[in-house]
Design brief:
It is built from 2 helices and 2 strands. The longest helix has 32 residues. The chain starts with 6 loop residues before the first strand and ends with a helix.
Length: 85
């Protein structure tokens, strides 16, 4: 099986520069960076006294929560498909 080539991507998140390594396309990595910066800005407006760390933790928590919900939905769809067999 062929391994996907990992790419290096330079991103500016919350005003700080990072080099990220992953399998995603440049377009994907840029879209994720843009969304992350947008969410950080929204949280900063909603919670001006929060720290960068607190905002990052909230975004990470929300992302993992969404991932769990998607996985749960996927599993439920898989089980419901088997019920119809």
């Amino acid at each position: 099986m062929e391994k996907k080539e990992k790419r290096r991507f330079k991103a500016t998140i919350a005003g700080k520069d990072y080099v990220l390594v992953g399998n995603g396309t440049v377009e994907h990595m840029q879209a994720v960076t843009d969304l992350l910066n947008e969410q950080l800005d929204q949280l900063h407006e909603a919670m001006p006294a929060s720290t960068e760390e607190e905002r990052a933790i909230l975004i990470a928590f929300n992302a993992i929560s969404k991932q769990f919900k998607l996985e749960e939905k996927h599993l439920q769809q898989g089980h419901s498909t088997h019920k119809n067999d």
